[in-house]
Amino acid sequence: MNQPDLELECWLCHFKGFPDEDGNCAECRRPLVPVDKDPAEALRFYCVLCERYFVSKRDQSGFDQAACPECGDLSNTPDFHLSEVARQREKKSNAWQVVVAIMIGTFLGTTLIFSLFRWLATWW
């Protein structure tokens, strides 16, 4: 991801410093942009609506994004889309883990309560 010795600036809260472990702003948790990015650098972008790649300069928002020349939709680099897919996959994985933990906890809790009632019934 980001180099740990690279100082970054947040476009939202204007925090200047080093990223957290995920490469995001330590203040507001937004993705950080390297301070030394060249705004005139031509990058390859992918338009989701047109489903095509194009080369353009990044806009002034601080992110690697640009308007599609055909439809005008704000497009991101292919790396962003790959990261987005990974984030969505991680969210689904975390949600599934929570569901499984709740199911196991419910099963174990119910089993423990019924065992306790059976044990108490033997004493009375």
Kindly state the percentage of residues in helix: 25-40%
Main sheet summary: 3 strands, antiparallel
Number of helices: 1
Distance between the termini: 64 Å
Number of distinct beta strands: 7
What's the arrangement of strands in the largest beta sheet?
Answer: 2-1-3
Structurally, the number of domains stands at 2
Overall 3D shape: elongated
User: Low-confidence spans: pLDDT under 50, at least 5 residues?
Assistant: none
Would you tell me the structural class of the helices and strands? alpha+beta
Q: How do the SSEs run, as a string of H and E? A: EEEEEEEH
Radius of gyration: 24 Å
Mean pLDDT: 77
Characteristics of this structure?
single chain, 124 residues, alpha+beta, two-stranded antiparallel sheet, 1 helix, 37% helix
Quick recap:
The chain is an alpha+beta fold.
Describe the structure.
The structure is a single chain. By secondary structure, the protein is an alpha+beta fold. The protein folds into two domains: 1-36, no CATH class; 38-123, no CATH class. Helices cover 37% and strands 19% of the residues. The chain contains one helix and seven strands. The chain has one helix spanning 78-123; strands spanning 8-9, 16-17, 33-34, 42-47, 52-57, 65-67, 74-76. The strands form three sheets. A three-stranded antiparallel beta sheet has the order 2-1-3, with no helix packed on it. A two-stranded antiparallel sheet has the order 4-5. Strands 6-7 form a two-stranded antiparallel sheet. The longest helix is centred in the C-terminal third of the chain and has 46 residues, at 78-123. The N and C termini lie far apart (64 Å). The mean pLDDT is 77.
